[in-house]
């Protein structure tokens, strides 16, 4: 979980760093959470997001939306997301971050215009649905999954670094 999360934070920071040459620019970030904040890991993720931007001296305004997928139907989730995105259309966020499978899939399935014009970064996804991303032609979506392809990572590291004497993998039991 730590390695994908670090890659995720790097992607977010890279996006905002490249967005403007003015390093003092202010960015608005919308975080869409699949689950409520009663789960202890949700607060850790939100803290990690704000800490990553703070550590890079970036001025960001982060707002959160709880999709609460455990207690709402898919149609209700999509309706709520459409209402949220409609309310932001006049002043859209610079970046949308989603946590876990349910949030990214519900968001993309809305087919809202902001899901095509605003960069979207997902984290915590277990089952990446390439078909859904491709179905709506989302070229503005990137992120990390919970199950990295270690063989691909190793081959890339070999290409970049040459000979590798040792590999250490940090993981969790979930």
Order of helices and strands: HEHEHEHHEHEH
Strand content is 15-25%
Instruction: Choose one word for the global shape.
Output: globular
Kindly report the spatial arrangement of strands forming the biggest sheet.
2-1-3-4-5
Helix tally equals 7
- End-to-end Cα distance, whole Å, is 9 Å
Low-confidence stretches: none
Rg calculated over all Cα atoms: 17 Å
TL;DR?
The chain has 174 residues and is α/β, with parallel strands linked by helices. The chain has helices spanning 2-19, 40-55, 74-88, 100-109, 114-117, 130-135, 150-161, and strands at residues 26-33, 59-66, 95-99, 120-125, 141-145.
What does this structure look like?
The protein has 174 residues and is of the alpha/beta class. Helices cover 47% and strands 18% of the residues. The protein is built from seven helices and five strands; from the N terminus they run αβαβαβααβαβα. It has a five-stranded parallel beta sheet. α6 links the parallel β4 (120-125) and β5 (141-145). The longest helix is centred in the first third of the chain and has 18 residues, at 2-19.
């Amino acid at each position: 979980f730590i390695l994908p999360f670090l890659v995720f934070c790097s992607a977010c920071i890279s996006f905002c760093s490249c967005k403007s040459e003015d390093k003092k620019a202010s960015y608005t970030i919308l975080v869409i959470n699949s689950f409520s904040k009663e789960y202890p890991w949700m607060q850790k993720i939100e803290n990690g997001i704000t800490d990553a931007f703070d550590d890079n001296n970036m001025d960001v305004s982060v707002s959160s939306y709880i999709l609460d997928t455990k207690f709402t139907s898919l149609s209700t989730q999509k309706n709520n997301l459409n209402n949220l995105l409609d309310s932001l259309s006049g002043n859209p966020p610079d970046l949308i971050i989603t946590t876990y499978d349910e949030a990214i899939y519900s968001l993309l399935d809305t087919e809202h215009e902001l899901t095509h014009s605003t960069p979207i970064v997902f984290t915590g996804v277990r089952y990446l649905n390439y078909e859904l991303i491709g179905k709506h032609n989302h070229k503005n979506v990137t992120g990390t999954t919970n199950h990295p392809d270690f063989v691909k990572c190793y081959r890339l590291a070999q290409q970049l670094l040459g000979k590798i004497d040792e590999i250490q993998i940090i993981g969790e039991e979930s």
